[in-house]
Every structure is written in structure tokens, then in C-alpha cells.
């Protein structure tokens, strides 16, 4: 795997990123530490977390993932400099009052969240600090339409950038990124940064997979022209693209035990739980089998090889899953197969958008 430069920054990352939101809920600390060590051995030194993790978000596990990573750094002295560490400040509460007082995300909230993350992570600096979701109202997490009547924004993008700039100046973060963002948001963050000499967004972390390619409906051009990289999350569509739900469905007695989407109602209510999403996933999974591949191999090879994707974020529950995902790196998809994939998208759209 060759290093990737994020956006127009000097931040180099591995093209596979270890997502850690299962740590502290589905993955215990000892297993999480083993996964962190193994990923580093395999050249995956880019790790992503967030203050609100683990998932599904609960008051009891708020900050647990960062704490587990921080304990790994403490137990492995000298390894911090080998890791590119990304974390995120949560946007407005979205019914999570344990994250912070109030429903917004003020400049002071950004600073306080970053400092709390640094303490849990037991580090002096976060390499990439991202806004987990926009402070303003946007269609995200399964909401398809923008509705200006729902706007409740109280902190401008300029104020958010100023807060992040202060953290950069203080040496607490090195680079900034966005997540679950729109073309307007990317443009505005970049415009204001360039106009006022503030930190420039290096990356956007958005969903991207076979059943959700809405990134290619304008954000790809936006980010390519502005020099902002995509960190693709949910490349396996919360497990739909592994094939494990093809016969059993998402819920019910035959559904896989312990799987996130089968276990947590809050996840099923979003885009991944739509019947249309599972129906589409079954079509792609069968396409993989017809081509002699596993569904997981098709889904990850698609993301690994797309020009739009700088780094693909993988999240796992077991060491076997981690090993499988890493071993898929380098798998090539034929032009004929890519055309079949595009044909399915033309017929099915993006049901998990």
C-alpha cells in the first residue's frame, strides 16, 4: 500500500483506515488492542475515532473508544508517532444530551470537545480533527431532502473555522476535516479558509459503497476541483454487502447474532435498514458470487480501487474480519464487472442514500 496525501495538505495516510466505533461496545479492550497492533503491523497506520463512540451511542459508552485507544498508546510507548490519528467533534446533539449541554455546537464546544478527546486518547495532538456532522441543518443519515424550515444553526461556519484555527495554532490538532457534508458545506469551508487565511479542509468523511454512491452526484467534482479527499465510510453498508443477511433478513430468529444492524433499532431506522437497501445489496452480492468472488471482496475492492476514494474506513468485530478486509487489498475488478456494477446502479439507484 502506498501512502496517500490528503487533499492539499502534507498529511500522509494509509489507503485503508481502521474505523474503531465498535471498540467498547462489540469489541472489548483486549481484542481492540490486538486489532490496533495488528493493523499497524499490516501497514494500516491511519486510525479513525470520535468523541461520541462507541456505537450505537449511549451515555454509558460515550468516549469509550477514545479511552481504549488512549490506553493502547500508554501500553505501547513510542508507537504514537507511527499512527495518524483522526477523531471528531460531534455536531448538534441529535438526542444525545450526554455529549454536551445545549443542542448546538458552539466554538467553545469545539475546543472543549477536542481537549476532552486529547485526555481520553492520552496524546498531545490529533492529526486530523473532523466535524462529525454539520452544525447547520442538512439532509443526512437517511434524510433525502433539504428543508430550510428546519434550520436551527447558531454558529456560523466562519466561527467554527476560527475555533479550529485556534486549536491548530495551539498545537492540539494538525489538520481539519468534515464528515457527512454537502457540496455547499465543502465550498463554504474552503472559501472562508482561503479568504481569511484559516486552516483548509483536507478531507470529507462520507458514506460510500455500492448501494450508496451519492458522492458521485456532485460531491466528487466539488472535492476534486477544490482538492479535498474522500474518506469512505460504511463500504460494506453496515454488513449488507457481506451477504450475511441475504437469506435471513436483518431481523428475526435467523439473523446473525451480534451484528450491529440486526441488534440496534436506531441503526435500522436509518438508510441501512430500508428494505430497498437489502434488496439492492442482494443483487450486488449475487453479482459477486457469479464472478467467483465473495460479496465482501466485491464491495471492498470497489472502494479500494475508485479514484474518488483516498482512504477506505473499515470497521470490524473480529480479527478474522480484519484479516479478510486487509487481504482484499489489491483485488482488481474487470472492466466488464465494473460495467455490470454501473448497470445495477442505473436500475437500482442509491437506496441507502
Summarize the structure.
Residues 15-344 form the NADP-dependent oxidoreductase domain. The chain contains twelve helices and ten strands.
Structure description:
- There is one protein chain.
- The chain is of the alpha/beta class and 353 residues long.
- It has a single domain, classed as TIM Barrel (Alpha-Beta Barrel), CATH 3.20.20.
- The chain contains twelve helices and ten strands.
- Helix 5 links the parallel strand 7 and strand 8.
- The two termini are 30 Å apart.
- Helix 3 packs parallel to helix 4, helix 9 packs across helix 10 and helix 9 packs antiparallel against helix 12.
- It has an eight-stranded parallel beta barrel with strand order 3-4-5-6-7-8-9-10, surrounded by six helices.
- The longest helix has 16 residues.
Could you give the topology of this structure?
Elements lengths: L3 E2 L6 E2 L2 E4 L9 H13 L4 E3 L15 H12 L8 E6 L17 H15 L4 E6 L25 H13 L3 E7 L3 H14 L4 E7 L11 H8 L2 E5 L26 H4 L1 H4 L6 H16 L4 H11 L3 E7 L3 H9 L7 H14 L5
Parallel strand pairs: 3-4, 3-10, 4-5, 5-6, 6-7, 7-8, 8-9, 9-10
Antiparallel strand pairs: 1-2
Helix pairs in contact: 2-3, 3-4, 5-6, 9-10, 9-12
InterPro entries: AKR, AKR_Detox_Biosynth, NAD(P)_OxRdtase_dom_sf, NADP_OxRdtase_dom
Pfam families: Aldo_ket_red
GO molecular function, one term: oxidoreductase activity
By CATH, the superfamily comes out as NADP-dependent oxidoreductase domain
Low-confidence stretches: none
Query: Using DSSP, what is the number of strands?
Result: 10
Portion in helices:
25-40%
The sequence of SSEs as H and E is: EEEHEHEHEHEHEHEHHHHEHH
Domain module count:
1
Highest-level CATH class: Alpha Beta
Rough outline: globular
Tell me the strand percentage band.
5-15%
Q: How are the strands of the biggest sheet laid out side by side?
A: 3-4-5-6-7-8-9-10
- What's the architecture in CATH terms? Alpha-Beta Barrel
Please give the radius of gyration in angstroms: 19 Å
Largest sheet: 8 strands, parallel, barrel
CATH overall fold name: TIM Barrel
Amino acid at each position: 500500500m502506498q501512502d496517500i496525501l490528503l487533499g492539499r495538505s502534507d498529511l500522509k495516510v494509509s489507503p485503508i483506515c481502521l474505523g474503531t466505533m465498535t471498540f467498547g461496545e462489540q469489541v472489548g479492550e483486549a481484542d481492540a488492542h490486538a486489532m490496533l497492533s495488528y493493523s499497524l503491523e499490516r501497514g494500516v497506520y491511519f486510525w479513525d475515532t470520535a468523541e461520541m463512540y462507541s456505537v450505537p451511542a449511549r451515555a454509558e459508552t460515550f468516549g469509550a473508544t477514545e479511552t481504549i485507544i488512549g490506553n493502547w498508546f500508554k501500553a505501547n510507548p513510542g508507537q504514537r508517532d507511527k499512527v495518524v490519528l483522526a477523531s471528531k467533534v460531534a455536531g448538534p446533539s441529535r438526542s444525545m444530551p450526554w455529549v454536551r449541554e445545549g443542542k448546538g455546537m458552539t466554538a467553545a464546544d469545539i475546543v472543549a470537545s477536542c481537549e476532552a478527546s486529547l485526555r481520553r486518547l492520552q496524546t498531545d495532538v490529533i492529526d486530523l480533527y473532523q466535524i462529525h456532522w454539520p452544525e447547520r441543518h442538512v439532509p443526512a443519515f437517511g434524510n433525502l431532502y433539504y428543508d430550510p424550515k428546519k434550520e436551527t444553526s447558531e454558529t456560523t461556519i466562519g466561527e467554527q473555522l476560527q475555533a479550529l484555527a485556534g486549536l491548530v495554532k495551539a498545537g492540539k490538532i494538525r489538520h481539519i476535516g468534515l464528515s457527512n457534508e454537502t457540496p455547499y458545506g465543502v465550498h463554504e469551508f474552503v472559501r472562508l479558509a482561503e479568504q481569511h487565511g484559516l486552516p483548509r479542509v483536507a478531507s470529507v468523511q462520507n458514506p460510500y459503497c455500492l448501494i450508496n454512491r451519492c458522492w458521485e452526484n456532485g460531491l466528487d467534482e466539488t472535492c476534486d476541483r477544490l482538492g479535498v479527499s474522500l474518506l469512505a465510510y460504511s463500504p460494506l453498508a453496515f454488513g449488507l454487502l457481506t451477504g450475511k443477511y441475504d437469506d435471513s433478513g436483518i431481523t428475526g430468529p435467523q439473523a446473525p447474532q451480534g451484528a450491529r444492524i440486526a441488534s440496534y433499532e436506531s441503526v435500522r431506522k436509518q438508510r441501512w435498514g430500508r428494505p430497498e437497501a437489502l434488496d439492492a445489496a442482494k443483487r450486488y452480492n449475487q453479482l459477486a458470487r457469479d464472478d467467483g468472488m465473495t460479496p465482501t471482496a466485491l464491495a471492498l475492492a470497489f472502494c479500494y480501487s475508485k479514484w474518488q476514494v483516498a482512504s477506505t474506513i473499515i470497521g470490524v468485530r473480529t480479527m478474522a474480519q480484519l484479516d479478510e478486509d486487509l487481504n482484499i487489498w489489491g483485488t482488481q475488478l474487470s472492466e466488464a464487472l465494473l460495467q455490470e456494477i454501473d448497470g445495477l446502479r442505473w436500475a437500482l439507484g442509491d437506496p441507502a442514500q
